[in-house]
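User: I'm putting together a teaching handout on how multi-component assemblies are represented. Below are the sequence lines for each component of a complex, exactly as they appear in our records. Could you produce the 3D structure of the whole assembly as structure tokens, so the students can see both representations side by side? Please keep the chain order the same as the input.
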Amino acid sequence: MTEQDGAEAGEQLAVELAATGRTVLVPAGLSILEALLDEGVDVPFSCMEGICGSCRTTVVAGLPRHRDSVLTAADRAAGDSIMVCCSGAEGGRIVLDL
Amino acid sequence: MLTAAENETLTRVGPDTPMGRLMRRFWLPICTSAQLPGPDGDPLRLRLLGESFVVFRDTAGRVGILDEFCMHRGVSLVLGRVEKCGIRCLYHGWQFAVDGTIMDTPNHRNPKFRERLRAPAFPVLEAGGLVWTYLGVPGRQPPPPRYGFMTGPDSNRAVIRLNTAANYLQLYEGGTDSSHVGILHSNTANPSWMLEEFTPVADEDNPGALAVSDNAPALDIEDTAFGYHYVAKREGPPGPDGAPTHSIRVTPVLLPVGRIIPAPAYQFFVFEVPQSDTVTSTYIVAHGDRPIDRARILAMMGLDDPRFWNDRDCDFRADWSDRLGQDRSRMHESWTGFGGIEQEDAVLAVSMGPIVDRTKEHVVAADRAVLHLRARLLESVRRNEDGLDPIGLDVVDYTGVRSLPDTTVPVGQPWQELVPGNALVPDSSEPAPVTG
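Assistant: Of course. Below is the structure of the complete assembly, with chains in the same order as your input.
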């Protein structure tokens, strides 16, 4: 378990894809991005460390737990986007515009 | 003539154009094998259909075709180090294999990055002295084409590339225009033109040698699976019984960029491949069933003059500062003031400007095969834009397709009987293999 995992220890994170309603479960030890890629969901990305902003994804519902260094305080307050390479979500569920 | 819109459709080949999308359905040559002579040699900076690539041969002899600019922050990989089975960017040392695998990122230790990402790389086919690639939708490439020149000993083949500052269609049209052969190429077709008499040249190697002097050939055109083929019928000498004859010459046109020009001893496969809208790489592959003297072919083409062309960069040099290199002091004995058929063809294409305005032309019956080229290309573009396969995409095996050098036949003999393989080329309906 590292800081960058999408799911916290002892909690299962479910990511719902708004376009299809499909749900991808994020296994422990993987980021949301890695889980999506493993399921064949095409998400642009580069650094995988919350630096570059390539994987910025729109949040439809749910509360992101931000760990990136791209979003500004205002971005975070708005709560409508997430860097899926390193961030997670409160409450074990998030719906993304994918 | 064409409308301005049709001319645009036919001549623009970038990624977001109808013709660009059509050409991206096919395997196309990007360079010659001779330009990549050995492992870990100098990488090439090449353009194809308006895009830029780095092409290199790795330590194991495999050819790689990657986006020219490093995926990290855009430095040209053409400056890179070719070593240890890959090409390494000078800037931060990122190293890529021929298939785009990221082998090393010295300034970024996260191994997940190298495992999850891949540099843009394109499929490679090396055959017939050419390096071919496919720039279309990944995994949707057709099976690699098979041509007669891809078999047999290398000594039976001569491969020439020349890069000309003209849109591909100007050059392609010249290759489907039989009536210019006896006029523009007068010194080849009829060296005694200045005496106003005709002397045929008995040169088995030369596609510009005509058997008769008729410069207004009648044309017959027939569509085929690979595009079309056409016959130029010139008045021939009377037959043994005094009956009228035709001297016929058949040229197959292999859409979207190929054709086969006949000489008695060799078939000349020619591909007019766009580097961009305004620069064309012409690949000429002369091939027969006996050893071929490449130096003699180059001389015949007029490419033995280093003012115009050299084997190192393959660029055809002609600009108006010296009237495109024309020597008018020789025009009493040289019809053009130029020398050799390809030199003459390339100079004329350059003289038209980068993209000729076909709304202003005045075509005649002798241009029918040129008009048919445009019509078939436009038809193929429409098919592709409508979600169907473009003309020729399903043809894999071109080995039976032949051109016919000047042959005397009785008037009325069906010319198709002399090139039976052209009609027999099947539409192969096998689906393209899905790879990558």
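A couple of points students might notice: The longest strand of chain A covers residues 56-65. The helical segments of chain A are 32-38, 73-78.
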